[in-house]
Specification:
heterodimer; A: about 350 residues; mainly alpha; ABC transporter involved in vitamin B12 uptake, BtuC; 14 helices; about 0% strand; globular; B: about 300 residues; two-stranded antiparallel sheet
């Protein structure tokens, strides 16, 4: 009975993801690229949500786990004959090691988890602004190393010749896996303990919860999802280190906050809504037909619309579009916690 | 030439001091607004970008230098006040995370407006470039801009300190930074204090824009962004709550960045951001409340 009541929380985001995938099957292959991109963004934002939403601590470092996952999956799947051309400085053992699509995704998730664990061990002791700046530092360091170290990847160049195995189904299944993991986590005892520390750290500590351990667990798990999403991403399009940096950090964080960082539904809605809008205006630079009207906008409009929209939502509705609430059956609505607090920077 | 073993020369040292000075000004600009509004302004770099574009247009229109600099100050101040009126004031009741993401949004927005309006290629703000020429100071050749930047930074900071300690507005700003609600209860006008902080912060951004545009002549939409990230790290490193630690933190990271950039060979200096941020992380782990602050008081409960 409890599970039945909880099901809408899982079904609502899952149906949204599946709906996006099905819609993506119906459109031309030119437009499908936008749907694929949106599904990858859903996976990344859900990975962010798992840590930020449940712990209430802001992290700027997650895109570095996405980048590490992308590098892992990319380096291990570029065909051996191409490796010397794409990545002339690659370390020897990486040249000779090749794995398949699924194995590369699993390894990407593994690398994301290990990186998050290593980073989290010292960093999860911090809180507030110090934690924010420290995770920012992680982003800077990873980006700096990936950009210049040519023995582990293509350096500044784009990651070309990675087999593009991320089709609409692989992207949809990946997003669903992320949603399912996040759902399972937030209803596990660990997820509940972490949410307790978010609502009231002092009371949670008094009840015997170790804030440090719970945050570390969530950070590692969300690092795994972020790495996995990175693997999916690199199998979709040739990525560059510069593309997995500030802008992506900002856009994905914005998706989470605009959707409502307190709920899984918020993460998915935010990613779908903002990326949908972004895609629409990007496509409109080459003229789109809206209900018989031909609309053409100068390039760069998408970013500006996104920025304005984001500032508006943050000023007018700071708890996000969903208000940080999950979808629940009407009978339960009364009991749903209304206090879904915002993350503390 | 002391410290010769480090490959450190006087010009490198002077450049480090100059960058430290400019970063210290930016740190104060960010710290003042944080003091009264509790907002970490990520969009500070975009104020500097706007100022640099103003200088570039000044150069393009062949304005005399004083007029171009005045134009730069006008643009930055106007944008600073606008940012405060349209976004920051409305965010005051919100949580720190929302505020930080909102300033992110403003930064992203301004950057893309600049990209759309001024194009991706960048503009040249070359009218002050002759300040890059060296002065001969007792046998050591030091860039004029380094001397000017250090002098300006010291001058600005002294003026600010006088303002904060000797005028009623300064006293009110310090009171507001310590406890905004109590200060208001005691009759400090919130709007006046906020306006004061925003204007001074804007002035410092304009000064920083002038200084930075001398060495970095090409102005693009990302002008000042990387500097702001460094300064933010420096400010948190020093201790955001108090102006002097924040200034020292900003100076420290600018100085370190300037010195290391000059001393390290190029195949290592490309990893400079990694070194700096690794150092920042280590310091934060040891002293999470900042390097130059005393032990933290009780945790804020409300």
């Amino acid at each position: 009975m409890r599970l039945v009541r909880r099901l809408p929380e899982l079904l609502a985001p899952a149906v949204l993801v599946l709906g996006t995938a099905l819609l993506g099957l119906e459109v031309s292959s030119y437009l499908q690229a936008y749907f694929l991109d949106t599904l990858v963004k859903v996976a990344i934002v859900v990975a962010l949500y798992l840590f930020i939403g449940n712990s209430g601590v802001l992290s700027f470092g997650h895109i570095s786990f996405v980048a590490l996952g992308a590098w892992t999956a990319g380096v291990l799947t570029v065909p051996e004959s191409q490796k010397k051309i794409v990545m002339p400085g690659l370390a020897h053992f990486l040249v000779t090691t090749n794995v398949g699509n699924l194995a590369s995704l699993a390894l990407a998730a593994g690398v994301g988890a290990v990186a998050a664990l290593v980073v989290g061990l010292p960093l999860m002791r911090l809180s507030g602004l110090a934690a924010g700046i420290a995770t920012f530092g992680v982003l800077e360091i990873v980006n700096n190393v990936l950009t210049y170290d040519q023995s582990i990847g293509p350096g500044e160049n784009a990651f070309s010749a990675v087999p593009s195995t991320t089709g609409i189904w692989q992207a949809a299944v990946a997003a669903l896996i992320c949603v399912a993991v996040a759902f399972a986590y937030q209803h596990s005892r660990f997820g509940r303990m972490l949410r307790a520390t978010r609502e009231d750290p002092a009371a949670a500590t008094a009840a015997g919860i170790s804030i440090y351990r719970q945050r570390l667990l969530a950070f590692t798990l969300s690092g795994a999802l972020a790495g996995f999403a990175g693997g999916i991403y690199v199998h979709l399009q040739p990525l560059q280190a510069g593309g997995l940096y500030l802008d992506l950090t900002f856009i994905t964080l914005a998706m989470l906050v605009v959707g409502g960082s307190g709920s899984l539904l918020g993460a998915v809605v935010g990613a779908l809504a903002l990326n949908g809008l972004f895609s629409f205006f990007s496509a409109a630079t080459n003229t789109v037909n809206v209900l018989g009207w031909n609309l053409t906008v100068p390039s760069g409009t998408a970013e500006i619309v996104l920025g304005v929209l984001m500032a508006l939502v943050l000023v007018l509705r700071p708890s996000g579009l969903t208000g940080g609430r999950e979808l629940s059956l009407p009978r339960r609505r009364r009991a749903v916690a209304r206090s879904a607090a915002e993350p503390v920077a | 030439m002391i410290l010769g073993f480090l490959n450190l020369t006087w010009p490198t040292f002077a450049n480090g001091l100059a960058l430290g000075g400019v970063y210290a000004l930016m740190a104060v600009g960010i710290g003042l607004v944080f003091g009264v509004l509790r907002i970490v302004n990520f969009a500070y770099g975009q104020l500097i970008m706007a100022g640099a574009y103003a200088l570039a247009y000044g150069a393009q229109w062949n304005l005399p230098n004083w007029l171009a600099i005045l134009f730069c100050f006008g643009v930055v101040l106007a944008l600073s006040v606008l940012m405060d009126q349209l976004v920051f004031r409305r965010l005051r009741a919100h949580s720190p995370a929302v505020m930080l993401v909102a300033t992110f949004a403003v930064a992203f927005l301004l950057q893309n407006i600049a990209l759309l309006a001024f194009g991706p290629l960048g503009k040249s703000a070359g009218s002050l470039a002759l300040l890059n020429a060296p002065w001969d100071l007792g046998g050591v050749e030091i860039k004029k801009i380094a001397v000017i930047a250090v002098a300006t930074a010291v001058g600005c900071l002294v003026l600010l300190q006088l303002l904060l300690t000797l005028t009623p507005l300064g006293l009110q700003m310090r009171a507001a930074a310590i406890d905004f609600r109590t200060a208001r209860l005691l009759g400090v006008r919130a709007n006046r204090v906020i306006a004061g902080a925003v204007v001074i912060s804007g002035l410092f951004a304009a000064v920083s824009a002038v200084m930075l545009s001398v060495t970095e002549i090409t102005v693009t939409s990302t002008f000042g962004t990387q500097d702001t990230i460094y300064v933010l790290a420096g400010v948190v490193l020093g201790g955001l709550n108090r102006p002097i630690p924040a200034t020292l933190g900003g100076f420290a990271i600018g100085f370190a960045s300037g010195i290391l950039g000059g001393v390290l060979p190029s195949n290592q200096s490309q990893y400079l951001p990694s070194f700096l941020f690794a150092a920042v992380i280590v310091v934060l782990l040891v002293r999470p409340n900042g390097l130059f602050t005393r032990a933290a008081g009780a945790v804020e409960r409300v």
